[in-house]
Amino acid sequence: MRDLMGMMKEMGGLKAKMEAMQAELEATEITGRAGAGLVEITLNAKGSMKGIAIDPSLLVPGEKEILEDLVVAAHQDARAKMESVIAEKTQGLMGGLPLPPGFKLPF
Predict the structure, then answer these.
(1) 104 assigned to some structural domain
(2) Residue 103: what pLDDT?
(3) Cα–Cα separations (whole angstroms), residue 34 to 4, 8, 88
(4) Residue 47 carries which DSSP code?
(5) Does residue 71 or residue 22 have the better pLDDT?
(6) Cβ atoms within 10 A of the Cβ of 93, count?
């Protein structure tokens, strides 16, 4: 029972840390690239798109599909990087706190 009380106390302090982490994720920007950097998409670490940059050389009539594919690829790159950042920050936040298997935080 004592271990449970200690864990509950730790969880109480975790709420403030989670709120701070949410604000940090909102401010963290991640850029995904495709086509050797010809397309860049910037997301914050919560998944909101903050910007897109497309090299003018890709704006060629009749090559719409290539541009669309590069935008999708850049977005996928940014999402993969975002998930890595979230996992890293979550691991640091949890600091060895024992969580049940399969438990996911609401980020």
Answers:
(1) no
(2) 59
(3) 48, 45, 24
(4) S
(5) 71
(6) 16
